[in-house]
Amino acid sequence: MKIRLDQVVKTFDTFRAVHGVSLEVASGELVALLGPSGSGKTTILRMIAGLEFADGGAIYFGDQDATAIPVRERGVGFVFQHYALFPHMTVGENIAFGMKVSKVKRSKSEIAARVDELLKLVRLEGLGNRFPSQISGGQRQRVALARALAVDPKVLLLDEPFGALDAAVRRDLRVWLREIQEQLGITTLFVTHDQEEALDLADRVVILSEGKIVQEGTPEEVTRRPNSAFVTRFLGDTNRLQGQVGGGQVQLGGTAVAAPGIRDGKADVYVRPADLEWAVEGEGLSATVTRVIDRPDHRRVLAKLADGTQIELDVPPETRVLRGDIGVLRVHRANIFAA
Ligand SMILES: Nc1ncnc2c1ncn2[C@@H]1O[C@H](COP(=O)(O)OP(=O)(O)OP(=O)(O)O)[C@@H](O)[C@H]1O
């Protein structure tokens, strides 16, 4: 099922939370809505589900205007971060709940067979008789997904479903969710404020700020070609340097970095920590190391340029670098915006 939003607007009292958002999610696609807190992600999802009404624009399910489709008939499965399971029901009963209240009548044995099938799909075979308090947080979110999938939704809406879980469990669940989504081919919208999660999971990422879409594209497009300083900063750690563009290049400490399509004049040059190289001598920006932080797969070096600018760069874990060392930084890649 394809979903299309056309110039959707939502205002709460006098506050406009969503400003004319247009968006298309192809059938079977997994799209992440990514943005800082308050950017309107949840409001957009709730409007698609029919839990909130748009006060401008339109939402289409396939070619049909969604306002004409009652919430229960939209065929939407929802999983929220805090969409608690019914605590007094077993895992199996939780999964069966939607089927029992659905307009589509199923026999007891049909429901039991479907519950078994879903338990297998979410890899919780044998746990059907446990209560939610007797399983882990990650397992509970898998039950929540099975419950959402029980009634064969055409669209799956996930609102920070792994938000409350620890980092390692989140990563496992991401891989698992992607596999299930591909297996079922179900159109999915996933809300998150976690860049890594969005980039890992999605076919396409839609970045929101203050109720507006500021960029959308594949993970590769948005990471390699962010269209603004906001997107560049939001997608990950970055350094900001001042530069002067001339003839399609910007000069940084004696090295030229390509600045295609940027008009001559002052520019902000954003450089990710991994796109800087540390050298003891040679051409580059002179810097003094102020701190070294060891991380599992690299060393993060904090350094100061001659003009006092603080810089962060990542070097391989075995690099010999100490606080107080003086060297040079070379820029390998940058995102440049006219200032
Ligand atoms: N029922 C409501 N009444 C008034 N304002 C609301 C209501 N729901 C949301 N808002 C406001 O609309 C804006 C967008 O909220 P929304 O929950 O959609 O953002 P979000 O991007 O999902 O944020 P988060 O990541 O924190 O969940 C916020 O400023 C929020 O305070």
TrEMBL record:
Signal peptide: none annotated. GO terms for cellular component: ATP-binding cassette (ABC) transporter complex. It comes from the Bacteria. Pfam families: ABC_tran, CysA_C_terminal. The keyword Transmembrane helix does not apply. One of its GO terms (biological process) is quaternary ammonium group transport. NCBIfam families: 3a0106s01 (TIGR00968). Belongs to the ABC transporter superfamily. This is Sulfate/thiosulfate import ATP-binding protein CysA 2. The lineage of its organism: Bacteria, Pseudomonadati, Pseudomonadota, Alphaproteobacteria, Hyphomicrobiales.
